[in-house]
Design goal:
homotetramer, 304 residues, Beta-lactamase, 10 strands
Chain lengths: 304, 304, 304, 304
């Protein structure tokens, strides 16, 4: 297995030069473009890691499915899906157009920014600290890593460059989708984007989803019906504007982040964490996407 | 099994009254709203049918995945996906907006009208008759029913009321997506929508997809990689603007048509055909959707 | 003249019942729907007023051309039109769509909210108080009324219900159109909307524009080239989504506000202020529009 | 006067090199980019022409206000404005988006393609020949030139490259805006675009509008109220996406065409025809626009 991973890693390094590290948030731009790491954890808890696996990076959009889990746990599916839709969109993840043109106005799904901000608002807590602590607790439990925390520099950087998200949040408060203190919700959202992890953490979290929400020794962390909802969203909307293509080419439920991480869930089999910060034009890790396509082909991991 | 199907049928009849038979094509409006039929064929070729299973109806959008298969066989994936995208869309199936706003202009996927018209143009043939005969041959082989043909009245009715499709087709010729004689391509498209089938035909076709493109006795009709592509599209874009919701609630690759039919593929297990012409507001058979959700829950058919 | 005005007023009262007082800002909803007042001031300074002319109301969008004047005085046309366009739009005054879809992103004109917020940001001042004081000074001078001030209740009400404007402002800061402290610019914008006037004030201000920026006794308040720019905008974009229709039916440069006021400029002849808070569906005073159409017909005031 | 025109012509030749001859219709691409001609006819019928004034060119969009006149004469304003709106748009002249997004669907004004096609459908006639003959008769009478006719090569070229217009026409028939035989209406529309004129013809037609629809010797060709409507549209929507800017900078009611012609109406004073086929990015004659701005400044022609 390790050998195979090393081969896959080696043959996909070449993609990095066609990608670009995200730079719209200054702290993101500091990432080393050459990094590429893969971590796999199977259903028996055995882990294999190759490449730059110890590099820490922030979750960014990878936090979206996890925030959705916490919101579903806290507010229930009825309330969550009264506010956020279930449909994929052909628009970019930070588009505001449909919030105006769709009637009734409702973000199309929880994997685009507008939907994710709404999801975060549905995590219980009297303020952003309480919300983020609930989410952090979930993340730490799923990852089996108590040391996971917030990258403070990234959080501050997000906060300072978040006018597009702010615009969406205020628009949604105007239409009644978002309630309460917008800046407070955004604050929790920026913190969740700045949760710092490694490939191995991501693989462990993905494994928990692959194992229907159970730990390796069988304790339930996330109820099975919530796991099903979340992995379905990962297929239909997990890879930004390239979700459809990734479903066809790799067929693995996955969620990417603009930091260059990808969390991939192979139901009943394994959790995968990939990290490589050079992104393609849709915002997905360019080498990461190819690594997962190769892995899917070699190990026949497609759910389709 | 038959008993269970009858129960499911009985408990979902109540939905019919909340739906409406499509009326934008006059010939469609003649359907009997009360009809509801289910046909299931398992991987061993055993069939169970309940309700109004002998009623004939036209394929409408159910023909889209089949035309995609024929186009992939005839023109290859490179050419097909140079012209049509792989991404789901948040817009209605007959929306023209994205053809103007997306650069480069390209229909988002082959399950919306613009994409399907393009797909049909990629079926080989010197005219609409040759194209439709190639497609009909595929459909007949997959269904194991040589008698499948075109409903002429429906075809004429489609043709007369197809200005929206015509608008999209001319727009796409303007942007270079569609080539050749627009009216001739549309003619083939209208015929394909008017292919007449029963629930059992649909179940048999679905079974062929569920069986990785093989007949029950193991002959390959559709190559496995094409089957995978098509069933993936059925998940991400098969149920119009409710594809995401259906993936979450039923989790079965499916394609609906405005005639009220739904073709559902349970990989490795069975093919399902449902028919009930009263539609919900998104254009899916209202009782049909609920039947499939129940079936999925009772038999644990979700791929997620 | 007074008689004619009274006739026009009498015959247009009937429209009021087809309109509705704006209610999206609570303080606006308190207006008395039955009010209807007309004030005309001619180039010799003679004034005629009929109806509810002493009722005070807030300027709302009527402040937009005045803020544009101050921005042009303060920042010059090059800077102003680098940030704001000159083109009318078919979209509603509070639409955010074009800010995303137009490249480069730039509000289409200074008479829609996005453009007006930008205009306000181009009025000099170290904070919102300084900006609004500059604008108030201009308004007072044009109106010849030192007592014009801010309606504090309305200002607070605007501020509390301004999430849509906030969304646009943050979006524009994201795209680089708006600079500096968004909340501070918005604060000035909310105050300018809450400037309190009567029909007579509006007529006097309009007269100043009708007189090419001069007072009746010939002192220049606004340079002629700025007057020309502003009155042109009033024709192409002054009456929200009904500007084209109003240009055809009345042909008078005019600017309306959702408080129910309309400021109309008849170049070389007169300034007109109309007030009646019941609005048509586009946000213009329903009786006010008809009064101006009648006035234009009776006195042949159209510039076309 | 002639001297002044020659100066204006000389100093604006330099703009030509920044423009580009339209090439989306092959026959248009044959125009000589260096051509620049100006023709002015005053209210007394005196004409001055400078530059390439004898060059023939096709009307293209300049035919839109004339078709509007004929439609208003034939079908009346109520019927015309039931089908076409009065509002300017921020979208390009060939945009189809608003036909889908606006409810009820209605082209925004008669100066964009969708609106103009509708206008042509409202000219009486049992077929395209009858419609175009009515329009030609009007054009010839207004121009005082019986020899004006259709450029057949251009007409055929329009017809062959008109898929975008075809798309809009079929879309509008789908929504009920356009009735009857779409290809027949389009045929008339393509012919009207291909009406061949010179600068002097344009100046004469413009003069008729400038003279409130009367010939120089006082015969009424177009009723005054229709003239008013048409010149108003020329201000709010006559110069494509640059109408607002042109209103501010030149302030003359004008209509441009992609052939490089501009028809400008100075009410009560003169008619102007300008021709220079190199276009700016919005589709207006680049030298033509500057010539008119200079003329307006030198002779103080702005209506504002």
């Amino acid at each position: 297995m390790k050998e195979m991973l090393q081969k896959i890693l080696a043959q996909n390094r070449c993609w990095i030069k066609y990608g670009k590290v995200a730079n719209y948030i200054p702290a993101l731009a500091k990432a080393e473009p050459k990094h590429l790491g893969i971590s796999i954890m199977n259903i028996k808890g055995q882990a294999v890691t190759v490449g730059d696996c110890c590099v820490k990076f922030t979750m960014q959009s990878i936090s979206k499915p996890l925030a959705l889990i916490q919101a579903l746990l806290d507010s229930g599916p009825v309330e969550v899906f009264r506010k956020v839709g279930m449909e994929p969109t052909g628009d970019p993840f930070n588009s505001i157009v449909k919030l105006e043109t769709l009637k009734p106005s409702k973000p199309l799904n929880p994997m685009i920014n507008a939907g994710a901000i709404t999801t975060t608002s549905l995590i219980k807590g009297k303020d952003s600290i309480e919300r983020i602590e609930r989410l952090l607790k979930l993340v730490r439990t799923m990852a089996g890593n108590k040391n996971i925390g917030i990258n403070r520099e990234m959080y501050m950087s997000e906060k300072e460059t978040a006018d597009r998200n702010r615009a969406m949040a205020y628009f949604m408060r105007d239409t009644g989708v978002l309630e309460g203190d917008v800046e407070e919700v955004l604050d929790a959202y920026f913190m969740q984007c700045a949760i710092e992890v490694s490939c191995s953490d991501i693989a462990a979290i993905a494994l928990c989803l692959a194992n229907r929400g159970l730990t390796i020794d069988g304790r339930e962390i996330v109820p099975g019906d919530i796991v099903r909802v979340v992995t379905t969203f990962m297929v239909t909307c997990g890879m930004y504007n390239a979700s459809g293509e990734f479903a066809i080419k790799a067929g693995i439920p996955a969620k990417s982040g603009v930091s260059g991480g990808i969390m991939a869930v192979v139901p009943g089999k394994m959790g995968i964490g990939v990290y490589s910060p050079a992104l393609d034009e849709r915002g997905n890790s360019i080498a990461g996407v190819h690594v997962l396509e190769d892995l899917s082909a070699w190990l026949d991991l497609s759910i389709f």
